Amino acid sequence: FACCFVFSAVAVSSDKAADAKKLKAMIERGRYLVNLGGCDHCHSPKIFTPMGPIPDTTRLLSGSPSSSKLPEVPKDILAPDKWGAVTTNDLTAWAGPWGVSFARNLTPDVATGIGSWTEEIFIKALRTGKDMGEGRAILPPMPWPSIGQSTDTDLKAIFAYLQSLKPIENAVPDPISPTGEHMPTMKAPKK
Q: Is residue 69 predicted with pLDDT exceeding 60?
């Protein structure tokens, strides 16, 4: 009986080590995909340097800063024969024919980020173009149609990486429709 217990304990320990190694590899794959996809170009606040804006690594992927004041969009700048979109200087808020969109907080903060999301909700959102997979439309410039074509394995890796980040509290504003109404963003999964 004692040797069975020892064998069982070694097997469990070995399984845990293998699982930890798999998770680490999945997170590293997710980090690679997030960096390759340039997610921080829109989802990270910036620091301004002599060479231009760079992602603020202390607020990586925390979305459009809630403390930022949205500048007024110049009248008559957006039209089919003019500009198609304009952005804030840190690239975290965009205005276009769809209204104004703000880059979402992708950190695992439960209250303001995607910490309450499941892997299934994340994949469904990127495949359907709907907030949390069932809410309002995910707005430009978010390239969800392209990202949504990724394999389940890659989307799960991206989600694992995002969940491994430090949670950052940053309540990104709700998008604004072309007529000026706020378009509510879901804060938690429907029960």
A: yes
